[in-house]
Every structure is written in C-alpha cells, then in structure tokens.
TrEMBL record:
The lineage of its organism: Bacteria, Bacillati, Actinomycetota, Actinomycetes, Kitasatosporales. Keywords: Cell membrane, Membrane, Transmembrane, Transmembrane helix. It is a multi-pass membrane protein. GO terms for cellular component: plasma membrane. Belongs to the DoxX family. Its main location: membrane. This is Integral membrane protein. It is found in: Cell membrane. The chain crosses the membrane at residues 21-43, 55-75, 82-104, 110-131. It comes from Streptomyces spiralis.
Length: 153
C-alpha cells in the first residue's frame, strides 16, 4: 500500500494544480455570465446581465471574473482565493441561508462549495504549473548566492 500512497503523494502538486485550474475556470465562467450575458447569462435572467454597480450581485460577479482568472492562472492564488472564498461565504450567509438552513434546501450549494474550494487553495497554494510557481522559481534564480555577494572591505 505504501507504493501506491507514495506514487499518489508524488503527483499531489499536479492534481492540486489541475484542481485550481478547474475551480478557477468555473468561477470565471460565473463572473463572465453575470457581467457579459454569455454562457446563459446571469442566474435567473435568461441571458441577461447584472446592472453595473448593483449591490451585491455586480461586485460578486467582478470578484468571480477577476478572482477566478487569477486562480485559474495561478497568479496571486492565495490572496485571490481568500477574497473569492469570503465573497462566497457572504453570498451563502447573506443570500441563501435566509431561505433555509441546509444548502440543498436554500440553493446555496454552489456558494458553499466554492467557499470551501477556495479556502483549501488559501492553505495549499497554487500547486504545479501556476504562474506563482514559475515566478517564484525565476525570482530564486535571480537572487545572488553567497559566492556572488560582494564582501564589504
């Protein structure tokens, strides 16, 4: 059993990177639908959009589009995921939970799932093939080593 566990553990950064891409893409699609009327439009509008500046829907859609894109790319993943998770917690407790306690009853399943999905990314980071990882590697390569650092006389 340790052989399988070891192999699965070695692929963890790639699975996490793929998870991040899928969650970010789905969240970005929600924002694009609400802001631009694509992919069926904003929920309940049959292809329509949310009016600019409308609280809280338009602001949530901007967070979905921008935050989802940042998570999708793996750029500023932890910060973007933190903001996205908070927006979904707000959506759940302010909008959905008023109707009923359980997400299955109040239509808040997507809000609850996105909230927890993004909270996981806050703690795990972007995983493999994220721009965060690429930029961190480049930054580390550009830092001078002890041999390259001039010594003051």
């Amino acid at each position: 059993m340790t052989g399988l566990t070891g192999r699965l553990n070695s692929t963890q950064p790639y699975a996490l990177g793929l998870y991040r891409v899928v969650v970010g893409l789905l969240f970005t699609c929600h924002g694009a639908a609400s802001l631009f009327g694509v992919l069926g439009g904003a929920m309940g509008t049959h292809g329509g959009t949310i009016a600019a500046g409308t609280w809280p829907g338009w602001y949530a859609a901007v967070i979905q589009l921008v935050g989802g894109a940042f998570v999708l790319l793996g750029l500023g993943t932890r910060a973007a995921a933190f903001i996205a998770s908070g927006s979904m917690a707000f959506a759940y407790f302010d909008i959905h939970q008023k109707a009923a306690l359980w997400p299955i009853e109040n239509g808040g399943e997507a809000s609850a799932m996105f909230c927890w999905a993004f909270l996981l990314l806050v703690f795990t980071g972007s995983g493999a093939f994220g721009l965060d990882t690429l930029l961190a590697r480049r930054w580390a390569q550009q830092q001078p080593t002890a041999e390259q650092t001039p010594v003051a006389a």
